[in-house]
Amino acid sequence: MREQLNSIRERAEKELSSVEQIQDLENIRVKYLGKKGELTQVLRGMGTLSTEERPIIGQLANEVRKLLESKIEETGKKLAEMERSRKIAREVIDVTIPGRRKFLGSRHPLTIAIDQIREVFIGMGYEIAEGPEVELDYYNFEALNIPKGHPARDTQDTFYINENILLRTQTSPVQIRVMENKKPPIKVICPGRVYRSDAVDATHSPIFHQIEGLVVDKGVTMGDLIGTLQVFAKSLFGENSRIRLRPHHFPFTEPSAEVDVSCWTCGGKGCRVCKNEGWIEILGAGMVHPKVLEICGIDPEVYSGFAFGIGAERTVMGKFNIDDMRLLYENDIRFLKQF
Asked: Rounded to 5 degrees, what are φ and ψ at 288?
């Protein structure tokens, strides 16, 4: 058994002297010192030794074990240092090589316009309100005074998940949720994606963005709405911008109006951008219908309010003189880098 221990020591030292990889070092450790290693097998056979031989062989076995453990640890440190040196050599940076230019992205034109609109209304004291894009029929239509079978639903055909769940056609449902959970005074804008079953062309998309606003308080009038929209138009399109309101019908507002802004290109004189009309339609607005207030638990005899909805894509197309909505979604870098 003495010869076995000396042989194990000699062979292990020889193998350790030529090892070059950490994994090879681990294999040597397992081979000699593991649970089924050669040294372990020798120690298991010590029960067959005489009383006189046992302490002598045991001492020698311990010396061999300590020697191998020390050698393995020392070799491991050397291998780790060699690997570190090789890694440093591979990662040397030649500071004389010309640097690579980093191309930084920029905000999407839609993001630019939406952020500008948000800032305008935040400056007027509005809060941001958000809600789910997958909406209940009740919030998207019924609570907005558009019951089942109402012809207004035809102009807002959308994508239905089932009879009562759909992709919202406007961000007005967020206004309903706000009015249900908050008592007046209320002053919020609701930006977000909306969906309608429209064919894709230069001016339509099944996915687009709206920014809707809502104010509810005592004594709110149509004059407050007009003043708010005038401030918005001047902030976004320039101090010389003017607005006009044309009578319209929305089921959730009464009275209702389509709102035009004087053409930002010609100042209202008439040009190709405004089709020689001098005005460009940008949003719809009106006083919140008393029935909508009642549905939300707000007394229309005490409170009144106004609401408006701005199409972000239409605003972007007008602001940046873009004639095809599809350009906003095609991710063509030649187009986007202009902004």
From this structure: -60, 130
